[in-house]
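Reopening this one. Same input as before:
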Amino acid sequence: MNGANPLTSESSSTSEQAEHTHHHHQADSAHPHVHSEESLRRIINRLSRIEGHVRGVKTMVQQNTPCPDVLLQIAAVRGALDKVARIVLDEHLTECIARAAQEGNIELEIEQLKAALDRFLP
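Same output, byte for byte:
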């Protein structure tokens, strides 16, 4: 499992990777977001499973699988993505927001979170 997925080995290498992952939309933050290696690994593993699931759905379509079966699998992928989004949000709230409160830049952090949620939620 370790060497099989280039995403996993590449993304769990250093904290610098975590900084890069979150920092691109937060250029005006005083401190970049850094998450634990274990946290990143869990999220990346879930995304890898979802990636495989999406490939499975694509194969079903290519094989002319009945639409209800395809729709059921699409619903399962949606559910899995929603679960990952919930984990990312939970991590953000417990780690980043708490750190921002300690560092005194909570207002900026909350504004950025609101902007992200506006893009994420329908």
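So the earlier flakiness isn't reproducible anymore. For the record, Confidence is low (pLDDT under 50) at residues 1-30.
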